[in-house]
Amino acid sequence: MDDFTDKIAVVTGGGSGMGREIVRQLASEGARVAACDLSMEGLEETVALVADDHPDAEVIIHRADVSSESDLETLRDAVCDAFDTDHVNLLFNNAGIAGGGSMFTASRESWERTFDVTWNGVYLGCRVFLPLLAASTEGYVVNTSSVNGFYASIGPDRPHTAYSAAKFAVKGFTEALMTDLRINAPHVKAAVVMPGHISTGIVRNTMRAQVGEPTPEEAEFLIAAQEMFEQAAPMTAAEAATIILDGVRANRWRILVGDDAIELDEKVRANPETAYEDDFFTLLD
């Protein structure tokens, strides 16, 4: 799919970060785009940015929790009605949150909420929208995993179980889906996206999406972590979105985003048996 003109695209997590930038870039190339997010405020900001750049762009927004099948079904119906269509061409299952790092110290609710949004959001997105992709003449499903989908660690002293498990599931599911599509809908392709450290609002979005309110101490820590995360990122969300869309144009199924992602992938593949030993982390400095 080397041309997005008049294609119909659905983007989850379109209220910020990479999702927002995918919406903006698709709209700039003439696609008709539907974006969902938990934050209507974020979605409205996305629409305003698109309108400033391309006043004639067709973008609709819808509040949806991607862990809810009924929310996604409502989004699907809204897409069909707004664009008077029986198909979509592009599905970007991009929404995700962090949290639930430890099986010991994190609450079960936090762990399962992270897994439900970050994994089930992808699974349910495919369940709901694959029939519309199959009804197209040309389709692409793009699932966002992470470097933590092939390397389940962010350091030797910080458990990262829920997010890593979810992202591993996204990667494995997408790779298996490729064969399923080849047999049952060969005109639809699949790609797994594995970003490294990208400047996004994932910490802030996690605070919004997690179950329950954080304590004042937790909130203070998360706000500081968000600032550090954004400031230290070597790549912007807009740059990441460009790499993702270029990967779709090039018909790639495996899209690593960022030099850090490429380097980590190479080092894990070169030393899989030692990848979780303390000495391995010195290779990443």
List keywords for this structure.
globular, 10 helices, 9 strands, seven-stranded parallel sheet, Rossmann fold, two-stranded parallel ribbon, 15% strand, alpha/beta, 285 residues
Q: Would you kindly provide a written description of the structure presented here, covering whatever features stand out?
A:
With 285 residues, this protein is an alpha/beta fold. The protein has one domain: Rossmann fold (3-Layer(aba) Sandwich), CATH 3.40.50.720. A 7-stranded parallel beta sheet has the order 3-2-1-4-5-6-9, with helices on both faces. The protein has a two-stranded parallel sheet with strand order 7-8. Helix 1 crosses helix 8 and helix 3 packs parallel to helix 4. The longest helix is centred in the middle third of the chain and has 27 residues. It is globular. The mean pLDDT is 90.
Beta-strand percentage range: 5-15%
User: What does the largest sheet look like?
Assistant: 7 strands, parallel
**Named CATH architecture:** 3-Layer(aba) Sandwich
Q: Give the helices and strands as they follow along the chain.
A: EHEHEHEHEHEEHHEHEHH
Give the termini separation: 38 Å
* Count of DSSP strands: 9
Could you report the average pLDDT, rounded to the nearest whole number?
A: 90
- Low-confidence stretches at least 5 residues in length (pLDDT < 50)? none
Number of helices: 10
Main sheet: strand order:
3-2-1-4-5-6-9
Shape field: globular
What number of structural domains do the residues give? 1
- For CATH, the homologous superfamily is named as NAD(P)-binding Rossmann-like Domain
Question: Given the helix and strand composition, which structural class is it?
Answer: alpha/beta
Q: Percentage of helical residues? A: 40-55%
